[in-house]
Amino acid sequence: MCAHHPAVEHPYPQSAVADPGTAPETLARLTTLDDVEVLQQIAAHRNTDAATLDRLASPDADRTVRVYAARHPNTAADTLDRLAGDPDGMVRLEVACRKDATAARLDAVARYPDPIAVNREVVASHPNTSADTLSRLAIDPDPGVRAAALANPNTPAAARSAGGLLAG
């Protein structure tokens, strides 16, 4: 056991997070370290469990750690719901890029007041985006967002007409 980190049983945290066989419990214990690189590796580790990812995705966590948590397949639905409203656009982008993104999460990403249109464009092209969100994005001020919404087969006909008028 490390003298300066009594809760951590692994004397070499870098090697523990690099080992694909590291147990979820060990990864959870290593989150007590104040080492951003280790936390990033834990957030990306295939064995990291949902509870640990939720802690790593806290609002005060490092941006890259939150990005990895948003990308991780073990991240729980409620954590992803929270990350859909994260103040960092890259975190929201990872939520929107997930194949399992729900319509509610995609709507949250699209509604975030963000001057950078890429997140709305990803939402507009996602197959899980709701008709209401697509209708709103079809008249977005950004032409790339409008084009993505109009190209989505789930966009309602009325929104296609309204969006088409703006495109010309």
Describe the overall structure:
This protein has twelve helices and no strands. Residues 1-11 have low confidence and may be disordered. It has 168 residues and is mostly helical. The protein is 58% helix and 0% strand. The chain folds into two domains: 1-83, no CATH class; 102-168.
Strand content: under 5%
Helical content, roughly? 55-70%
Number of helices: 12
What's the helix-strand series? Answer: HHHHHHHHHHHH
SSE map:
Layout: H1 13-18, H2 24-30, H3 36-44, H4 50-56, H5 63-71, H6 77-83, H7 89-97, H8 103-111, H9 118-125, H10 131-137, H11 143-151, H12 157-167
Helix pairs in contact: 3-5, 5-7, 7-9, 8-9, 9-11, 10-12, 11-12
List keywords for this structure.
mainly alpha; 2 domains; disordered N terminus; 168 residues
Summarize the structure.
With 168 residues, this protein is an all-alpha fold. The chain has helices at residues 13-18, 24-30, 36-44, 50-56, 63-71, 77-83, 89-97, 103-111, 118-125, 131-137, 143-151, 157-167.
